[in-house]
Task: inverse folding
């Protein structure tokens, strides 16, 4: 289950079907930054939502516009920052944890993939401190998710730590409220 896009380029990117996306863009290169009618997502946003690393690399290498926003004023970086483990991932990790720590290794693999995805997007000209309709930046979202491995990547790219969202919270306020000590320490060191 997942999103269904009205634009075939967005759907191919979301599904991780690089061959289909290549054919679509070869036939009509103007669809590289096409916006879906319902969400306003571009193929790059769709690929970031789903965590399709190879598709994201392909789109960025082909000069997809990383500055574009959708109807929620989110960029592709917002979706990388919001990514969570799926229910299937959680179930697999839980079931496999007692079996030779396979669940732990699966969780590490998922975390490394998230880091790689974040690094690819940050290597582009994306606005690191772009604000969505809730006033949140990517740093707000990684703090909400307790992604202590992604916080340093954003800070290294000069993510602003003093931006308040519509609830009046900075990323540090969120980490403090949720008692994420490791993230609190990282954010305090940069302030």
Result:
């Amino acid at each position: 289950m997942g999103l269904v896009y009205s634009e075939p380029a967005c759907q191919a990117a979301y599904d991780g079907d690089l061959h289909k996306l290549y054919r679509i863009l070869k036939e009509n290169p103007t669809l590289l930054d096409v916006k879906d009618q319902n969400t306003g997502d571009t193929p790059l946003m769709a690929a970031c939502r789903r965590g399709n690393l190879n598709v994201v690399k392909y789109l960025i290498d082909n000069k997809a516009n990383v500055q574009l926003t959708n109807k929620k004023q989110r960029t592709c970086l917002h979706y990388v920052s919001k990514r969570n483990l799926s229910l299937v991932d959680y179930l697999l990790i839980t079931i496999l944890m007692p079996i030779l720590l396979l669940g732990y290794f699966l969780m590490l693999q998922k975390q490394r993939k998230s880091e790689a995805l974040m690094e690819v997007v940050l290597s582009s000209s994306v606005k690191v401190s772009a604000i969505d309709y809730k006033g949140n930046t990517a740093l707000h979202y990684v703090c909400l998710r307790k992604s202590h491995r992604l916080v340093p990547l954003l800070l290294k790219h000069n993510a602003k730590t003093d931006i308040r969202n519509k609830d009046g919270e900075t990323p540090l306020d969120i980490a403090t409220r949720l008692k994420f000590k490791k993230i609190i320490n990282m954010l305090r060191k940069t302030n």
In short: The radius of gyration is 17 Å. The chain has two domains: 1-127, 129-191. The chain has eleven helices and no strands.
